[in-house]
Each structure stands twice: as structure tokens, then as C-alpha cells.
Amino acid sequence: MSERSSVPLVAEPGDDARDDLDRARSGDDDAFRRLVEPLRGQLHAHCYRMLGSTHDADDALQDALVRAWRGLARFEGRSSFRSWLYTVATRTCLDSVERRGKRALPVDLGPSTDHAVVGDAPLSEVAWLGPYRDSGLSDGLLGPGARYEQREAVELAFVAALQHLPGNQRAALLLFDVLGFSAAEIAAIMDTTTTSVNSALARARKVVAAKAPSVTQQQTLRKIDDARIREVVHGFCTALERGDTDALVALLTQDVTWSMPPMPHWYRGLPAVTDFAVRVPLTGCGSWRHLVTSANAQPAVGCYLWNDDAGAHQAWSINVLALRGDRIAEITSFVGAEHFRVFELPDSLP
């Protein structure tokens, strides 16, 4: 939860917006796009929090906007246009949750592994949580009642914790604690009662408190000098490229974890993580190159592995780092070239 207050990002519509709404109701799609554009990034982030996948968020947002456009003539203005859009987007996401279920990380599947599993094979039948490109997020709160900042609310641990909630609890928590809607507004959005909303909120908060760290990455990162953060990220990249075990270990906490969805095995603790690092990325894979990025409002690295057939370093994984103090406490390596396209990173490096 944020310790910092911010100016809400929600403003009352001006005359131009009201004019655009009238035009959009009359079938002006350009006016509709102007209404939606200021909210598009927030809506997409909401869909990602609900669904745990950028691809699913893309589809859900597109579906929601089509539904909104087709149903705009029925929008009577009893709520704000923003509230109505979030109603459509939330219900679209709930439909998707019902069809597809929740997404997971390796830690959700079973206990950690003590020693490196060489040649670990992807587990394709699991719907895996994916990373989120956070470049469009600001640092402010989304509404006057919001408890989480935008960037806190896309952190990997928080989104992973949300996946342990049923759809209605997930929606209630996000609408109340992230977006700042009231219980009465959420009851209208979800077509239920305020009593049901408050009950869902209480259950959801209990689960998230147990699953997500009490200190967010934003709180941690604000306490670390930016130069030190860059030093840690650069040190991680350099250690992998040089195969330098000692340099890598010096950056890690004693209880560090390393997971690699869609690979099912994961590692906890310095001995297990060191064994994996030595036997797989540091000595068993070949030459690495890296590009620094950001994912889920956390430091991240795009890792490229040498491919003889291509004669280049090919996109391999987006590594999202979680820090504690000024050391790395979690490494989540999202393996797959498809993630690089989301981050607009190149498919290969020399």
C-alpha cells in the first residue's frame, strides 16, 4: 500500500468531452475515440491486473471497447463515462476469467527444487502469468479512494496474488483499492449488493495480504539511489555475459528465488540458485547479450542467447527483478520471444 498521497488522475468531464459524448451517441466514431483515449492506458492495466496476461488484456480491452461502442446509445449518463467504461471492461474480464481460469507462476505449482534441472522442458498445459510493459503508467493514484499507486498495482507479486482470487473478489479489490470506486459503485458495476462487495473485499484483502509482500517494490526502490539500482542491473547483466559466479552471487539475497515460466521447476535460497546459475545460464547455455528495460514497474532485462544457425543472439527471456534493500531477492525469467514484441525490443542482437 502506498505511503504517499497523489493528485487523483480522474477529472470531471469538460464541455468538449460532453460534446464528444453527444456526437459519439449519434455514431461519430472519432468522437468516441477521443473520449476513450485518455482512459485507454488505465483500462488496459485494469484488464492486465484482472487477467495476468498482456495478450489477454489486449483482447479484453478490444472486446470491451467494441461492446461500449455498440452499446453507447443506451448509456444514459447516470454514472460517469469513466465508470461506465470500467463497468464494460470489468464484465468483459469476468467473462474471460470464467472461460480461462487463473494464471500461475512456477511457485504456484509445487515446492522449489534443490539442484539444477538441466534441460527443463516447458509445461504447455499451464496458463502462465506474463510480464507487463509499464511505460505508459504514471506514479499517481487512479481515484480519490485508491489505496495503491498505479505502479504498485502492476507489480509482479501483487498481480500474482490476485490470481489466487475468484473473479468477483479480484474485481472488487481492484475497483475499490486500485481504482477508487465506492462499494455502492462497485455493486452497480458487478450487479450485486454493497454487502456482497464488502464481503468480497474482506476475503480478497486477506488472501492478498498473505500472498503479496508487505513492502512493495515501489517502496523499496524509492529508498535506493537510482545509481545503485542501475549498478545492480548492470552487474546482473555483466555477470551473466562473463559467466562470473562470484559477481552474480554478490548481488543476491540469501533467500533469493529464481523461476522461469513456462519451465515448471524453480529454485529458492542461495545454494540452489547458485547451483542452477552455474550449471545452466553461466556455463550451459552459451553467449549472452542484454538490453535493460522495465516490466511490472520493476527493473528488468531482456536476455538474448547466441544461436549458431541465426548467427546472432536471439531473444530468449524477459528477466524481471525484485529487490530487497539493494540486492536481488527474486528473478522471474519469462522465457519466449513473444514477450519481446510486447516490450518493443528487437528479436536479435549481434
Automatic annotation (TrEMBL):
Pfam families named among the record's database cross-references: Sigma70_r2 (PF04542), Sigma70_r4_2 (PF08281), SnoaL_2 (PF12680)
Keyword annotations: Sigma factor, Transcription, Transcription regulation
Stretches assigned to the RNA polymerase sigma factor 70 region 4 type domain: 157-206
RNA polymerase sigma-70 region domain ranges (all copies): 35-102
Record GO biological process: DNA-templated transcription initiation
Keyword Transcription regulation: yes
Any one Gene Ontology molecular-function term assigned to this protein's record: DNA binding
All residue ranges annotated as the SnoaL-like domain in the record: 233-330
InterPro entries reported for this sequence: NTF2-like_dom_sf, RNA_pol_sigma-70-like, RNA_pol_sigma-70_dom, RNA_pol_sigma-G_actinobac, RNA_pol_sigma70_r2, RNA_pol_sigma70_r4_t2, RNA_pol_sigma_r2, RNA_pol_sigma_r3/r4-like
Region of interest called Disordered, as start-end residue ranges on this chain: 1-25
Keyword Nucleus: no
Homology family: Belongs to the sigma-70 factor family. ECF subfamily.
Assembly and binders: Interacts transiently with the RNA polymerase catalytic core formed by RpoA, RpoB, RpoC and RpoZ (2 alpha, 1 beta, 1 beta' and 1 omega subunit) to form the RNA polymerase holoenzyme that can initiate transcription.
Record-given protein name: Sigma-70 family RNA polymerase sigma factor
Organism of provenance: Phytoactinopolyspora alkaliphila
